[in-house]
Write a structure and sequence with these properties.
Two copies of one chain form a homodimer.
Chain A lengths: L4 E7 L3 H11 L3 E2 L3 E3 L4 E7 L4 E7 L7 H6 L4 E9 L2 H10 L11 E2 L5 E5 L9 E5 L1
Parallel strand pairs in A: 1-5, 6-9
Antiparallel strand pairs in A: 1-6, 2-4, 3-4, 4-5, 7-8, 8-9
GO molecular function (chains A, B): methylmalonyl-CoA epimerase activity
EC number (chains A, B): 5.1.99.1
Enzyme class (chains A, B): isomerase
């Protein structure tokens, strides 16, 4: 079912410092920061030849990544995003298999403007997994 | 400098269960388990169209991922591996920039039979980074 690894999201406490690490230390191509107030994050995209790293930092008072950074104040990998062809079919498959879809269990529009699901880390070997309709 | 994301390594306490999650629940193509005694892990490769996930579990009494799993008993993303064209040049660049190369600071042969470096998470936004000569 899953296709490409769309991105690896890394939550960071200092977006400017993390961007400099990827741009200057590792020599990667990075985007300008993009505020996504409806998702509670500011994002910088690190463009690699085959996929993206997304550096994310909290935006606003109720960021969904605030609790992650409280537990991991230096930052770390927050989630992996895999592409799927049909998000509704993916949601049904997950539920039929007993895997927990976060939120109300239905796809919602994600940070790229496409429908996504987030899946419970305890059902995916300790990793928060996002599925995005490609 | 960095090129492709070669793989995302996920440390897991139960390799069979994690393999089943990726194969059966997520519908991905997975390899047979491969023991790498010189690296202290057993690995399953999850083949995606653009990159790989490597599921790793401890092998032997002195596995380098044992302490990670002691802190994160359900598993989680252990490291990201980026490809570089010249591992010796990468090592020099990291040291010149003040980034800590783990071990004795020199490239060694990694799990794929190619020279690699591991870089200190505190110098890379909280993420353990591996560089592998492509």
């Amino acid at each position: 079912m899953i296709g490409r690894l769309n991105h690896v999201a890394i939550a960071v406490p200092d977006l400017g410092a993390a961007t400099a690490i990827y741009r200057d230390r590792l020599g990667a191509t990075v985007s300008a920061p993009l505020d996504l107030p409806e998702h509670g994050v500011t994002t910088v995209f690190v463009e690699l030849p085959n996929t993206k790293i997304e550096l994310i930092t909290p935006l606003g008072d109720a960021s969904p990544i605030a609790s992650f950074l409280a537990r991991s104040p230096e930052g770390g990998v927050h989630h992996l995003c895999f592409e799927v062809a049909d998000i509704d079919a993916a949601a049904e498959r997950m539920k039929a298999d007993g895997a927990r879809v976060l939120g109300d269990g239905r796809p919602r529009i994600g940070a790229h403007g496409k429908p996504v699901l987030f899946l419970h880390p305890k059902d995916f070997a300790g990793t928060l997994v996002e599925l995005e309709e490609a």
